[in-house]
Amino acid sequence: MSIIKAFPIFEEKELTSLDSYDPLKAIRIQKVWKKGLKGKGITIAVLDTGIDISHPEFNGRIVGGANFTDEDDANFSNFKDYNGHGTHVAGIISTNNLKETTSVAPEANLFIGKILDKDGTGTVENLINAIYYAINWRGKNNEKVRALCLSLGTKEKHKGLYEAVKYATTLGVPIISASGNDRKGDINSEDLRYPSSYNESIQVGAMDKNFNLASFSNINENMDLLAPGVGITSTFLDGKYKSMSGTSMASPFVAGVTAIIIQQIEAELGRELTGSELYAQLIKHTKKNKYPFKVEGNGMLTLENFQQ
């Protein structure tokens, strides 16, 4: 049985109010919101440790979910979070913004797949099952998952996981994955985690508050882009908020922007985007920095040139 884990996160502090740093301003998202684009009607799946279901920030945002772990007597319909990682990740994608949390697409829907336990550990087999389930799931109003956010990984390649990632991609549902937080060397190092390092995944690394590569962010030849991943304020257990750092925080930024892109472009086209079209639209919203491709891929996430 192969093991998969939530990527270790660097906890900053528990918060009662926001830091002065605002990563939403860093990616220039306010101008997009002013155009009425907040991911409305788009469902993003978060496959992680579950979610704080009773958190007021998620009231009306969660449209479905499932538990693939043994917690709560393996109750399939109970995807409660006992770790906090999944709650933090989900909050970066979509919340009600009651306290102006870091929520990229505050009108997007959330599907929650609980595949990791209270220790942030699960099996690759459960992840595979969750990917297939999420892609084929339909909500009571015929909602369906349009992208999957995975802030987790394993060091080992796994044929079944690769097949699941390819299956999602062929259906136009991108797998948006964190690159991992293991880097200890310089930018010549290479750290592979899966599923992020599969070419079919959208691999996201973390940038810091100064738009530099975060010191912990893994890099390799399959990098796609960087997003904010240091000092990110989001939801936490028991209705609280916390500031955390990690590539785990960077991937939901990309997932949230993906929801906004789908909302905008599909309204114009009158049809669903293919996987390659969606990826091309996402990469339009990056900006090269000073790093080689293996470090930043196509560049830093930014919406400064976003056009409606």
In brief, what are we looking at here?
The protein has 308 residues and is α/β, with parallel strands linked by helices. It contains nine helices and 15 strands. The chain has a single domain, classed as 3-Layer(aba) Sandwich (Rossmann fold).
Give a topology summary.
Layout: E1 3-6, E2 10-15, H1 23-26, H2 30-33, E3 43-48, E4 62-67, H3 71-74, H4 85-93, E5 109-114, E6 121-123, H5 124-136, E7 145-150, E8 152-153, H6 159-170, E9 175-178, E10 202-207, E11 225-228, E12 232-235, E13 241-245, H7 247-269, H8 275-283, E14 286-287, H9 293-296, E15 300-301
Helix pairs in contact: 4-7, 5-6
Summarize the structure in words.
- 53% of the residues are buried.
- Residues 15-19 have low confidence and may be disordered.
- The longest helix is centred in the last third of the chain and has 23 residues, at 247-269.
- The protein has a 7-stranded parallel sheet with strand order 4-5-3-7-9-10-11, sandwiched between helices. It has a 3-stranded antiparallel sheet with strand order 6-1-8. Strands 2-13-12 form a 3-stranded antiparallel sheet.
- Helix 4 (85-93) runs parallel beside helix 7 and helix 5 runs parallel beside helix 6.
- The chain has helices spanning 23-26, 30-33, 71-74, 85-93, 124-136, 159-170, 247-269, 275-283, 293-296; strands at 3-6, 10-15, 43-48, 62-67, 109-114, 121-123, 145-150, 152-153, 175-178, 202-207, 225-228, 232-235, 241-245, 286-287, 300-301.
- By secondary structure, it is an alpha/beta fold.
- It has a single domain (3-301), classed as Rossmann fold.
